[in-house]
Write a structure and sequence with these properties.
binds the ligand Cc1ncc(COP(=O)(O)O)c(/C=C/C(=O)C(=O)O)c1O; about 350 residues; 6-stranded mixed beta sheet; about 40% helix; globular; alpha/beta
Length: about 350
Amino acid sequence: GRKWNMWRYKEFLPVDESKKVSLNEGGTPFIKCNNLSKDLKVDLYVKVEGSNPTGSFKDRGMSVGVTKALEFNVDTVGCASTGNTSASLAAYAARAGLRCIVFLPAGKVALGKLAQAMFHGAQVLSIKDNFDKALEIVTKFALGGYLYLLNSVNPFRLEGQKTIAFEILEELNWESPDHIILPVGNAGNISAIWKGIKEFYESDFIDEKPCMIGIQAEGASPIVEAVKKQKLDIKPVKNPETVATAIRIGSPVNYPKALRAIYESNGTALSVSDEEILKAQRLLAKKEGIGVEPASAASIAGLIKLIDDGYLDHGERVVCVLTGHLLKDPKIAINACKKPLEVEPDFNLLKKIIG
Ligand SMILES: Cc1ncc(COP(=O)(O)O)c(/C=C/C(=O)C(=O)O)c1O
């Protein structure tokens, strides 16, 4: 596999690297977006986490978390998930020979993610309620000793995901970007990345820290509401709704760490509409050739809004974390396009159509 993956930073990871459960996670593409940088007048880089083994950043956290599960001699791992966590846990659990039970919100999980969770052999329980309820249930099973919980409330998940920060800083030759922008759902990833930034700062690898900017969907933005009032607690959103089903979460389990990351880094949080998310998803695909699922495009939609609002100055260096691959949610991608014509294989007819 690729020589550079997240285990390059093994000294910062709380596991015995020789015992790791790994699919060569991390070491994902870090791409300068020249076209969008010109249009938006910022220095824009993207961290393409859709290039991980199961297509999202979750693999970094699951690699460490499942390695820990083996260390603790558990035989069953579990999670609630909007999709990507379950897809990743199912794959890493299969590799580790562990039983895997996942609790998903019925009818609200994108096709690619459901296919992965099922096909890698997880026991999939389709709960007739939302993610927050599913998380409540799986937590009861964990507390009852039925399974080892690997949602991002488990700190070992964040240990793996903090390597996103390490890779961004190394790629930028140890010069922090001005801002790191990413979508926020259960709020584990923004907490993990900020932890990584602080660890490299305390290790004297960098002498400046970026501001952390969390982006949420308008219908599911409890962190944004708390930041608006500079509060330390959140008011859960009872019925979160967004087309970006990955972040359709009303009660983020990591809100204390996420709010601290935003306040400590002098960052902010912003919500974007579903329309802005889908527009940004298409823009990224057509201008830079980078395909992401809707939740990941929220970071680009947030960037555009921050520039329009004058929050970001021209020329600032920004990294958007693109958390999941386009293929995770093929239905959304196809629905956004005109249905392809079905035509006879007739050269002259086709020549007319192609124009
Ligand atoms: C593509 C994508 N982008 C962003 C997020 C938000 O990250 P967190 O703020 O750390 O939750 C998720 C989260 C997914 C789940 O929560 C799950 O899979 O259960 C995601 O899949």
